[in-house]
């Protein structure tokens, strides 16, 4: 695996200098994440960027303190912990718009606590059979694991599609920040502050329309697809994963309905 350029610890501040236009017109509140954003977001006709916090699906106070908890992340910010059997979900339309822009980015800061992998999040059709958009960590093999990005048009496909996969060092029990930058032609993975790999991907459609009744699941992909972030044979309050950040960045389109 090659790491073409190391952004290292100062990845955020360097990119702020490289992208002065973005920095000027967006709200500073998400400035530190912009290393992962498609460049087009700051150019031409772009109206701006919307960021959606998928962790808003965790209801406070916690609905089931046996399987959910709040912990400190590495940098002291609160993180959500998901234990075996946690069932966090929300109607997709309560939290996300109906259409994903052609280019988008997903940013995740998480600490898996199992080597078995599982879905970090999944937006699943009403029958719970197709992952429209999601990220899954594969079980560890040796020193590595694989990150999968799911992207499926629920109006034509009957099977979930993995549109990109990236092999990365295993990170069970470590906090890692990673991001997928999806542009018209490419998908780039940033892992642990390093731009690791770009793959050429032909996506169809370029603009994904979610099923109006799809569900956002956290730390699972719903009851049918299974492969939750857990080991069903394990008896006990196993911690599956902690998440500090789970954000989706999309380009503001004239008809985007902001969800707050
Ligand atoms: C990962 O993606 C490559 C194409 O980039 C594909 O050839 C390979 O089969 C995929 N692997 C898995 C496990 O999905
Ligand atoms: C992330 O990078 C740091 C510093 O480069 C390194 O010490 C750490 O092991 C890396 N984490 C993973 C999971 O590769
Ligand atoms: C896609 O990636 C290739 C190789 O990294 C690069 O040459 C090309 O400009 C990229 N295309 C876009 C639209 O970013």
Automatic annotation (TrEMBL):
SUPFAM superfamilies in the record: Concanavalin A-like lectins/glucanases
InterPro entries assigned: ConA-like_dom_sf, TSPN-like_N
Transmembrane helix keyword on record: yes
Domain of life: Eukaryota
Keyword Zinc annotated: no
Record field: transmembrane: 6-26
Thrombospondin-like N-terminal domain segment(s): 48-252
Keywords of this entry: Membrane, Repeat, Transmembrane, Transmembrane helix
SMART domains the record matches: TSPN
Name of the molecule in the record: Thrombospondin-like N-terminal domain-containing protein
